[in-house]
Structure formats: structure tokens, C-alpha cells
Amino acid sequence: MLKRLIAKLKKSSPAPQAGTARILNRDQHRISRTNISDAALKVLYRLHKANYDAYLVGGGVRDMLLGMEPKDFDVATNAHPEEVRRLFKNSRVVGRRFKLAHVIFGREMIEVATFRGHHDNAEDDNESRKSDSGMLLRDNVYGTIDEDAARRDFTVNALYYNIADFSVHSYEGGMEDLQNRRLRLIGDPETRYKEDPVRMLRAARFAAKLDFTVDKASATPIPRLANLLRNIPASRLFEETLKLFLSGHALASYQQLQQFGLFAELFPQTHAALKANPAYEELLKRAFINSDERIAQGKTLTPAFLYAVLLWPAVQEQMKQLMAQGMPGVPAQHSAASTVVESQLARTAIPKRFTLPMREIWDAQRRLIRRMPKQIEGIYSHPRFRAAYDFLLLREHVGEDVEGAGSWWTRYQQQNPDDQQALVSQLQRPSERSSKPKRPRRRSNNKPRNE
Ligand code: ATP
Ligand code: MG
User: Fold this and answer.
1) What are the pLDDT digits (tens) for 326-356?
2) Residue with the nearest Cα to atom 26 of ligand 1?
3) What is the average per-residue pLDDT within 6-35?
4) Least C-beta-crowded within 10 Å: which of 21, 71, 354, 450?
């Protein structure tokens, strides 16, 4: 069994040739230790003192070389995960597909990965395992730094900063690609995407974040292979979605995903709703622009709000259909929300702690628009008020008919309590509204009511 597996792996993936590094001495690059976090430095130095190789690698090195502030720091070493675990009391070994050590310092976590090697050196299928489509189910064969570089995704992610002499080792033309602002996959793109389809999402994300051009050979196979994302666990796709949309480059990421045909794989229902009614795209784009501005101002964003926006077009379309069949607005929205969320979970598993507030944001829309005088205080003091109000403003901003409620709530919040009272008393009383039909059983046009 084992021999057969090894033979199969040898046949299907010839060992990539380990490239030799181009070495840039400390005075030939712009990385300075002052830009590296204390936690990362501690990890690097302790590994080095224990006679292991210790390099900073990946996004940290890439971003520092570009003059950007790194999001986090990743370390590569020849120490095995268990050895790292023994060296740092504050660490734990995680991951099955890709085993590595996490070293924790308060709120900061440093990922320490052992150099990966060729899969033809695998001893058992806990170290190396592939699916029929070529996907790597286990990637735990250890090797040398040269081999490790060949197994990374993009050339600009194969740059290593050596703590021993502060040099940068550039593999696979990484430094040149960085200078040319080019995103290029290492090795044969199709094989590499099949090994791990998430690399397609990473291509979209890095192109957006770094404003790099994706090399033609790396970009071309993506639309054809996009459906391989269906083989990825929904929880991993949820994490990737957050990185795409909550890191300050949501709009560019969205556009890149659409260009690659990847958005439809992540959000099939939203994709269908956008096709049925392209006007929804304005809402998404406006939300992405707002999110990017918020991140730039150092503010945080909740995944619940992001998902409320991303799934709203699908909920609206579904709700329209139910109402056309005669279901009243309120139950139609509830039912549409349940169906859409349930179906989305199969793609990007959304944890309950986000689906609940997301649904509260949707549910609050009707109350925010109706503004029943007796409910105003309750709505305003609800913990979800702010998010629901932001969502309403977004809808108002893109021209949805919300009966002026967005501006009304803006005014309401700007008043002192007495003037708030006055505003509320100017609202139409429910009895004055009763001349209108309360709940039309069937609407003549197919437009959903704003609830
Ligand atoms: P950022 O942290 O800014 O999102 P990053 O490049 O550091 O970007 P990480 O997910 O932190 O991305 O991964 C660290 C490094 O590990 C990458 O730079 C890359 O070298 C390698 N890597 C991560 N994911 C993959 C993958 N799916 N296939 C191959 N290499 C990967
Ligand atoms: Mg990183």
C-alpha cells in the first residue's frame, strides 16, 4: 500500500528542482529589525541560540521589502514542530494537513513552520497524502530550505530573512518579481492549484492587497479550475473570505475574484441574484468601500455585517419569489433568510456567533423603516442598533426605497432627548397609517416591500 502510494506520488509529481538562493546582504535590502515585532525576534533568536536555522519568511518579509507594515510574522526553521514545542513553553502544535507550531505572546501569535521537502521522501501517509484530484491532504514531509522554497505558493512569498546574518535569501526570482510588482506561482500553475485550490483565492487576495499584476500563466487556469474550491472544507473558506474582505482591500479583492470567476464559487446564491438584478452590485461595492475606509482609520469590522451585506441580494431575490407566491413580507423574509443562510453554510461555514447578529441586522430593517413611535426607544437601545442602522444607510445610499428612514435615524441620533421626543411625535401614528392596506396578500409588481 505504502509502496504503491509512493510510486503514485513519484509518477504524478516529479520533484521540483530546488532553486539556489540569490543572497542579498544586510546592506542590500531595506529590512531592519526595528520593523520586526519583539515576539518574532524572540522566536528567531531562541531558535538560533539552540543551533537551529531561523528565518522570517512569507508576508512579513515581502511586506517589509515593499515598505508596508506586515500583518503578521511567520518563521521557517529546520526544527521539527515538537522541537519548537519543547523550546517554547508558550507554544502548541497545530494542524493535520500542515503541521506547525504556534508560539503565543499575549495577543500576538507567531507561526513556526518546519522546512517542507519533496513528497517522494515521504515515509507514511500522515506525512504525504494526495486526493484523486491532486489535492494535498497531508503536507508534512520535512526537508531543506531550498526544498521549502520550491513548495511555497508565490515567488514573492519565497523570500527568507536570516536572523544569523540579517541577509535575505531570494528563491525562484522572488526579488525580481517583487521589484516588477508581479505575482507568479512557483512551478506549474495547474499542478499547484490542484494541490491546494485555496492558492487561487490567495492569488486574488495578494493581487488586490499588493496591487500586483498576476502573471499570465498563473492567471489563465484559474477560471477553469475555480470549481475545485468545492473540495475545500467550508470552515477554511470562511477564514479565507474574512481575509479577502476584512483586510482593507475588499473592493479590489471582490473585483479580482469576479475576474477570476471565483466569487461565484464562494457565494453562488449572491452570484445568481446579481445576475438576475445587477443593481445589487452597488450595495456590495459601497459596503466594500466603507469597509476599506474603516480599516484605513484603524476601526474594526464584524464578519456579521460583512455577511449581512454579501447575502442580502440573495435573501431579497428569494423573498421576492415567496411574496409572488402570496406569502406576506415578514414571514417571507424570515423564510428567505433561513434558506439562504442554510445553503451558504455548505460553502463558507459561518459560525453561529455571526449568523445570529447577521439575522438581527436583517430583521431590524423593517422596524427601522416603520418607526412605530412606541418602539423607537427599544430599537435605539438594542445592541444591534448601530450595525442595523449602518446597513440601512447603505441601502439608502444606493437608492433602495427605505422611506427616508436612514436620514431620519441620523437626525434622531443628533438630537438631545427632548428634541428626539419631538421628532418621534411628528411621526405618523399607526392609526393614521391604517388607511393604507396593512399587508397586501399579493403585490401587483414583483418588488419586495422594504421590510
Ligand atoms: P498575509 O499574512 O499578509 O496574509 P502571507 O504570505 O504571510 O500573507 P500566510 O497565510 O501567513 O500568508 O502564509 C505564510 C507563508 O506560508 C506564505 O507567504 C507562503 O510562503 C506560505 N503559504 C501559505 N499558504 C500556502 C499555501 N496554501 N501553499 C503554499 N504556500 C503557502
Ligand atoms: Mg503571514
Assistant:
1) 999 999 999 999 999 999 999 999 999 999 9
2) 153
3) 71
4) 71
Q: Which residues line ligand 1 (CB under 6 A)?
A: 58-59, 71-72, 74, 152-153, 157, 196, 198-199
Mutation to probe ligand 1, out of 161, 198, 202 (largest number of atoms < 8 A from CB): 202
pLDDT at 443 over 70: no
User: Domain ranges in the chain?
Assistant: 1-180
Contact 85, 92 (CB under 8 A): yes
Kindly indicate the confidence band of residue 447, based on its pLDDT and cuts at 50, 70 and 90: very low
CATH classification for the domain delimited by 1-180, as one of 3.40.50.12780, 3.40.50.720, 1.10.340.30, 3.30.460.10: 3.30.460.10
Torsion of CA 248, 252, 257, 263, to 10 degrees: 70
Interval between CA 192 and ligand 2 midpoint (Å): 19
- Nearest C-alpha to atom 8 of ligand 1 is from which residue? 59
Nearest CA to ligand 1 atom 2: 59
Q: Can you read off the three cell numbers belonging to residue 292?
A: 476599506
CA-CA distances (angstroms) from residue 367 to 131, 377, 380?
Answer: 50, 12, 11
**All residues with CB under 5 Å from ion ligand 2:** 58-59, 72, 74
Q: Which residues participate in catalysis according to the annotation?
A: 72, 74, 153
Q: Is the pLDDT of residue 315 over 90?
A: yes
Query: 34 CA distance to ligand 1 centroid (A)?
Result: 22
Residues 6+ apart with CB under 8 A from 287: 250, 306, 309, 394
Instruction: Over range 37-63, report the average pLDDT.
Output: 97
DSSP secondary structure letter of residue 78: S
Tell me the ligand closest to 157's alpha carbon.
1
Bigger pLDDT: 314 vs 300: 314
